[in-house]
Design goal:
Strand content: 15-25%
Number of helices: 7
Largest sheet: 7 strands, parallel
Strand order of the largest sheet: 3-2-1-4-5-6-7
Helix content: 40-55%
Shape: globular
Order of helices and strands: EHEHEHEHEHEHHE
Distance between the termini: 31 Å
Radius of gyration: 17 Å
Structural class: alpha/beta
Number of strands: 7
Bound molecules: NADP nicotinamide-adenine-dinucleotide phosphate
Length: 249
């Protein structure tokens, strides 16, 4: 299938590793010009070097609205506007369930909800009609699966925001969707660490909880993201698409 993404300008927030880097690679392979954002400049430069040409680096903490505004403004100035926004920044690590302090709640909402809300608000004025936003959420926002409490609540709020923003964004010619991944494995990521700590426990969980009986790959989330960002998904907006190997029942 030709996705018709050649020459489109895409901004990926959270692009320096893991799922976000796989999404950036996949969009780049489809011919997009890529604006890469994350807090750490060195990580962005390494990602840009890996992708080759047609990239720009925009360091910033997008849980802060002013920094999100600067990232989106600089990216749009570099590529002459924006067609695609990927809101991928997030972090599932938190304290044991039930022991959240108010500060921990705010930290988790900042990194897992406001990173996306800020990027949507900041990028929206720069996006051309026909553009698309994809937020990387989690199945943790759809059911109580043992993920950290504040993380699950933040992703549930993100899912609700995506559904409710579909109508106002449609008036601007924009679509918005979320992807809810299950457990995704890559070097240095959460599941790499969990496997190193307790391989037997992870394998037992996969056999018990996941229909396909395995961890997912970042490329499997990237493929769905690229499709949703493309004009081929022109009738899909306000949806939460699950890619979890059959864990959510
Ligand atoms: P990761 O390896 O920790 O990568 C997160 C990316 O976001 C990095 O590029 C990080 O770079 C950037 N980032 C984090 N906070 C940021 C901030 N405040 N401002 C700007 N950039 C920020 O995470 P991942 O495992 O690939 O997960 C990516 C997304 O998928 C997250 O939203 C996560 O909740 C979701 N998800 C992951 C899994 C999984 O199994 N891995 C499952 C379901 C959902 P810097 O540190 O340099 O800022």
């Amino acid at each position: 299938m030709k996705l018709d993404l050649d020459g489109r300008a895409a901004l990926v927030a959270g692009a320096s590793r893991g799922i976000g880097l796989a999404i950036a690679k996949a969009l780049h392979e489809e011919g997009c010009n890529l604006a890469l954002a994350a807090r750490n400049r060195a990580g962005l430069e390494a990602a840009g070097a890996l992708l080759g040409g047609r990239t720009s680096a925009h360091p910033g903490d997008v849980s802060d609205i002013a920094q999100a505004g600067a990232v989106a403004g600089d990216a749009a100035a570099r590529w002459g506007g924006l067609d695609i926004l990927i809101c991928n920044a997030g972090d599932g690590r938190s304290v044991p369930a039930g022991s959240e302090s108010e500060a921990e709640w705010r930290r988790m909402l900042d990194v897992n909800l406001f990173t996306s809300l800020n990027m949507i608000a900041a990028a929206r004025p720069h996006m051309r009609r026909g553009g698309a936003i994809v937020c990387i959420s989690s199945i943790a926002g759809m059911a109580a699966l043992g993920a950290p409490v504040a993380y699950s609540a933040a992703k549930a709020a993100l899912n609700a925001a995506v559904k409710s923003l579909a109508r106002p964004l449609a008036l601007e010619g924009l679509r918005i969707n979320a992807i809810a991944p299950g457990n995704i494995l890559f070097d240095g990521g959460t599941w790499d660490r969990k496997l190193a700590e307790d391989r037997a426990g992870v394998e037992a969980m996969l056999a018990r909880e996941v229909a396909l009986g395995r961890l997912g790959k970042p490329e499997e989330i990237a493929a769905l993201t690229v499709f949703l960002a493309s004009p081929k998904a022109s009738f899909i907006t306000g949806s939460i698409l699950v890619a979890d190997g059959g864990q959510l029942r």
